[in-house]
From TrEMBL:
Name of the protein in question: Bifunctional ligase/repressor BirA
Gene Ontology MF annotations: ATP binding; biotin--[biotin carboxyl-carrier protein] ligase activity; DNA binding; transferase activity
Shown residues within the full chain: 74 to 325 of 325
Organism from which the protein derives: Gracilibacillus halophilus YIM-C55.5
Signal peptide: none
Domain BPL/LPL catalytic, chain residue ranges per copy: 1-189
Binding of biotin, residues: Q45, R49, G50, R51, K116
GO biological process, any: regulation of DNA-templated transcription
Enzyme Commission no: 6.3.4.15
Annotated family: Belongs to the biotin--protein ligase family.
Reactions performed catalytically: biotin + L-lysyl-[protein] + ATP = N(6)-biotinyl-L-lysyl-[protein] + AMP + diphosphate + H(+)
């Protein structure tokens, strides 16, 4: 069944039924010298984590919990662009397969209507100017029903299944995701971030709309205007001036 049509992505798979976090397994695997494109997959995570040290609920086998080990030629500054690239690639595959309309909330959460369906976590091991390896983890809610979510989580989360009223074959999804990712990876390498940026804007959530922006320094209401050539968020602040935001949470 696993007829994966890729050259390097997912050709080595580390699968464990239960782990604390696939990110941790991936770090260990990478440090032992795992090759570019090795993936770590699990059914259940006991300590799945999200950005800003948040918990990522994944102690059930209904989602896709995965970390990819990549060894791109990249400066540490370009790593955030790489995450935006991952979001774009995921949206394209998922829209194609499910027919659902999916948007990207900056920097890289995937949303269906008003709820999050997928989160991406990028971690890297870098020395001065170069990246040794990068681990891109994503959690995709696939077959969860209402019962799998607490009320608080359900309020802001959804699954492919809840949005489409059917279940999805996780292996088939995984295969398509990996195949598209690899194809897009070549295009990204050839054409650079401008190619991703255009696509990202096409899928952007709340573009031109007012949101609350919480940066490490202040919070304010602003209008999402786009992303810069290096992947930062551009907003129009209270005074109508453009501001470039590198780190923030967006709320509405
Ligand atoms: C976020 O939305 O903050 C990112 C969530 C990332 C979750 C995935 S699930 C697979 C991998 N292992 C983890 O512990 N986290 C990521």
């Amino acid at each position: 069944k696993w007829g994966l049509q890729t050259k390097w992505l997912g050709q080595t798979v580390v699968f464990e039924e239960v782990v604390d976090s696939t990110q941790d397994v991936a770090h260990k695997t990478a440090q032992k010298g795992a090759e570019h494109g090795t993936i770590v997959v699990t059914d259940k995570q006991l300590k799945g984590r999200g950005r800003r040290n948040r918990i990522w609920a994944s102690d059930h086998a209904e989602g896709l919990w995965l970390s990819m080990i990549l060894r791109p030629e990249l400066s540490p500054f370009e790593a955030s662009q790489f995450t935006l690239f991952t979001a774009v690639s995921l949206v394209e595959t998922l829209q194609k397969l499910t027919g659902l309309t999916i948007h990207i909330k900056w920097p890289n959460d995937l949303y269906i209507r008003n709820r999050k369906v997928c989160g991406i976590l990028t971690e890297m091991q870098a020395e001065l100017e170069s990246v040794n390896y990068i681990i891109i983890g994503f959690g995709l809610n696939v077959n969860q029903t209402e019962d799998h979510f607490t009320d608080a989580i359900r309020e802001r989360s959804t699954s492919l299944s809840l949005e489409s009223n059917r279940t999805w074959d996780r292996i088939q999804l995984l295969q398509a995701i990996l195949e598209d990712f690899e194809t897009n990876y070549y295009k990204y390498q050839q054409e650079g971030f401008s190619y991703i940026r255009k696509k990202w804007l096409h899928y952007a959530y709340k573009l031109g709309e007012e949101v609350k922006i919480i940066t490490p320094h202040r919070s304010f209401f602003g209008i999402i205007d786009g992303i810069s050539a290096d992947g930062a968020l551009i907003v129009l602040n209270e005074n109508g001036e453009k501001e470039v935001i590198y780190s923030a949470e967006i709320h509405w």
